[in-house]
Amino acid sequence: MSGVKTEAEKRKQISVRAIADVEDVTSMKKSFNRHLHYTLVKDRNIATTRDYFFALAHTVKDNLVSRWIRTQQHYYEKDPKRVYYLSLEYYMGRALTNTMINLGIQGACDEALYQMGLDIENLESMEEDAGLGNGGLGRLAACFLDSMATLGLAAYGYGIRYEYGIFAQRILNGEQTEEPDDWLRFGNPWEKARPEYTIPVNFYGRVVDTPDGKKWIDTQVVLALPYDSPIPGYQNNYVNTLRLWSAKSPVDFNLKFFNDGDYIQAVIDRNIAENISRVLYPNDNFFEGKELRLKQEYFMCAATLQDIVRRYKVSKFGSREAVRVSMDNLPDKVAIQLNDTHPSLAIPELMRILLDQEHLSWEKAWDITVRTCAYTNHTVLPEALERWSCSMLENILPRHLEIIYHINFLFMEEIQKRWPGDMDRMRRMSCIEEGHEKKVNMAHLSIVGSHAVNGVAWLHSEILKSDLFKDFYEMWPEKFQNKTNGITPRRWLLMCNPSLSDLISEKIGEEWPSHLDQLAQLKKLATDKKFQTEVMKVKQENKMRLASMLEKDYGIEINPASMFDIHVKRIHEYKRQLLNVLHIITLYNRIKKNPKGNFVPRTIMIGGKAAPGYHTAKKIIKLINMVGRVVNNDPVVGDRLKVIFLENYRVTLAEKIIPAADLSEQISTAGTEASGTGNMKFMLNGALTIGTMDGANVEMAEEMGEDNIFIFGMRVEEVEALKAKGYNALDYYNSNPELKLCVDQIKDGFFSNGNPSEFSDLTDILLKWDRFYLFADYEDYIKCQDRVSEVFMNKKKWAEMAIHNIASSGKFSSDRTIAEYAREIWGAEPTWEKLPSPHAKGPQSTAQNNGML
Ligand SMILES: *Cc1c(COP(=O)(O)O)cnc(C)c1O
């Protein structure tokens, strides 16, 4: 394929971006060969591509460590407010290329490998994704780490080192199957185990009253072993830390068995404790109240809080105090951000530490806790909200349940004072939900225990205030904020789309990766014919590269002139992949009805994982594949319509697909997608969006102007009105013949070899109890898609709109998001300054410790 660059072209492209220093290249080669020999114990005769990857990764890591140590020393010396980001998910993807770019050594590495006769892209492809996340929430945490380091914040990510990340998806006969993601099989070159900082975490046991206060005794201990990974800022010499905990049995675990003489069984049973960090729960936007998941959440919170308190006490500020370190100033030196309610046990855990270990009064402890913690809500879907059963909590965390009850008791008193006799309000707001089974509403607990609560896009934050958390907003309006999500422009443009990056740098200079607002300078070039041609040439090359990759993987011939219409995200009813399928079938029927007609050719790609237990989502995947089989094999259709289900969508695949997209599908029911971040990645890479007025789409439309985006469908108010009036899918089905035909075909077995029961679950939902109103938006969606096709034929207009998209995406840098969190929630000031390079001569740190605290 002509879109694939030759080796010489690739090298030229990189050399524009980073001119390699001869000395750097020489030392890089030396280091690489040293690692191949001493670390991997291989020579060039027997080394595999994977060995070369590891040798390169270790070489790159060597370039990190001085900066890493010096950054931590710098934090110790300056002792700024520490920011702790707590998340059960970090969807990091690969680290190698990102690290080389952020360190500014990509040119030197590329040249060194070229001189040694190795293909760097081959090596890069050997790296396993760190897939410790499900989708948007986990990827957000990863983008935030990159931005916090780039802004010079003294920030730490804390989470779990899952032995198995998000499963690998395989499609067999059109159906999803899951394979375990054994990502650590060949080792992780980036992490550093720190067994010397192992921390005990308690479970079960009972609570007793002592003269010294409450005590939690007779517990079972699991050890939390920290693994640190470096998080380099963008060319600023900062390197922050992501600390992930791994569960480890204490030596005396199951000692009872040992005493019974069954030594072998006792050793085998050590696995039980270590299961806590075994596997990531594969649910996106869904709460499954499993005991092991509760243990994961507490394990992470307990280990992290002990670490936070320890670091506070040994900090310059903490250790200035004599003998007993006062906890009073914790909120001035520490900010804790909760990524959804998953880490919300941090609130009762901090209370437990302050009450039972530091012996503070309830009032003092509560004041410190609330001023330290802040909570980010990520969804309004009821099935996603965490509600842990009280009986499970009582068994596993008895002391925490007591504390939660007392928090709630005092909270109810406060409501009673302000709204005397308003029992219904107390019931609505309580952290404890009565009913068949008593449950703790973790969102309510998080609001009560935090000084700031934020949604992740303007619309979502408004819905929190007016609907889901209305009562709380009435009580504490000052707690509620918005922080519109963002993405890191380093990974999602500079790294994944080097040709577009070079083109942009040619026009506006090289500062944009850390000052994304500067992309606005491209607006004046939107109608520039030459620039339009250049942008569309890059897009075409990206499309060709993707096409040749897909042709290899799927054996389908792809028309590179067709519109690449892409819908990638987790498979979920609210994201409405089924609405896209209805459009596909509509296009198919139109071609069949008018075989000689002129149709704008489309290659429609849908990708995403379904939670293994989510039956409807798995059926949706099967339907997409079955529709694809009919469409792709119909000779009448030819190259005018192709449907591809992209297997195993993940960060690494997103990096390949997004730069090649013409059209981005963001079609959730208005009011259901909290923000979306996939939408932003496409916009930044010059795809046009077809979308509803939902999540951050609203702000994207505002930034680029409604002329540059294809908006359709009900607004939130219209969805609400329809819900109030009563939605009847049959009204739409019976009055729209194109819609009726599509649904009847699915129902009658047209896509399932004549088996009418195959997709009856889906058609029953659509016709009888669809919570996401697909038919109500169908007609407008189809009309809007027709407009998309029309504009796609006007290449000049399309290019102009694409440039407007790129030029308007500055707001969606996660640097902007993080700067807002820092100033408006954390009380920490982004520095944007550089640390001196480790090679620069200057005064060495006087820190007594090595700073890797
Ligand atoms: C960005 C991203 C997401 C989030 O996509 P949405 O469209 O916002 O749901 C999910 N998965 C991966 C791999 C991503 O990179």
From TrEMBL:
UniProt KW keywords: Carbohydrate metabolism, Glycogen metabolism, Glycosyltransferase, Phosphoprotein, Pyridoxal phosphate, Transferase
One BP annotation, GO: glycogen catabolic process
Lineage: superkingdom: Eukaryota
First-tier enzyme category under EC: transferase
E.C. number(s) listed in UniProt: 2.4.1.1
SUPFAM superfamilies referenced in this protein's UniProt entry, alphabetically: UDP-Glycosyltransferase/glycogen phosphorylase
Keyword Cytoplasm: no
Residue numbers spanned by region Disordered: 832-853
Keyword Glycosyltransferase among record annotations: yes
Bias kind Polar residues: ranges: 843-853
Matches recorded under InterPro entries: Glycg_phsphrylas, Glyco_trans_35, Pyridoxal_P_attach_site
The reaction(s) this protein catalyses: [(1->4)-alpha-D-glucosyl](n) + phosphate = [(1->4)-alpha-D-glucosyl](n-1) + alpha-D-glucose 1-phosphate
An example Gene Ontology CC term for this record: cytoplasm
Pfam families: Phosphorylase (PF00343)
GO molecular function, a single term: glycogen phosphorylase activity
Required co-factors: pyridoxal 5'-phosphate
Recorded family membership: Belongs to the glycogen phosphorylase family.
Stated role: Allosteric enzyme that catalyzes the rate-limiting step in glycogen catabolism, the phosphorolytic cleavage of glycogen to produce glucose-1-phosphate, and plays a central role in maintaining cellular and organismal glucose homeostasis.
UniProt protein name: Alpha-1,4 glucan phosphorylase
Origin species: Apolygus lucorum
